[in-house]
Write a structure and sequence with these properties.
InterPro entries: Antitoxin_Phd/YefM, YefM-like_sf. Antitoxin component of a type II toxin-antitoxin (TA) system. By secondary structure, the chain is of the alpha+beta class. It is built from 4 helices and 3 strands; from the N terminus they run E-H-H-E-E-H-H. The protein has helices spanning 6-11, 13-21, 49-52, 64-69, and strands at 2-5, 26-30, 33-38.
Length: 82
């Protein structure tokens, strides 16, 4: 986590907000003491592969093929009348 002083916040507010939007967490200090944190308002929708790779590291679902066979395989036009 990065730390910046209040003066730097005033001088570089746009850049610091942009970096927070990208996921950075920045501590703002006042007289050398932590006073506030600048963090993203919401989590990013898209994640980098490195952030989610562990989700795919486990073994494959052994029931996948059986579950897939439960789905009807007939094709139809969902907008067709009837």
């Amino acid at each position: 986590m990065e730390t910046v002083g209040l003066r730097e916040l005033r001088q570089n507010a746009s850049d610091l907000v942009r970096r927070a939007e990208e996921g950075a967490e920045i501590t703002i200090t006042v007289a050398g003491r932590p006073g506030a944190r600048l963090v993203p308002a919401a989590a990013r929708t898209w994640r980098r592969w490195d952030d989610v790779a562990d989700l795919f590291a486990g073994p494959a679902d052994p029931a996948w093929e059986a579950d897939r066979d439960e789905i009807p395989h007939d094709l139809r036009d969902p907008w067709a009348a009837g």
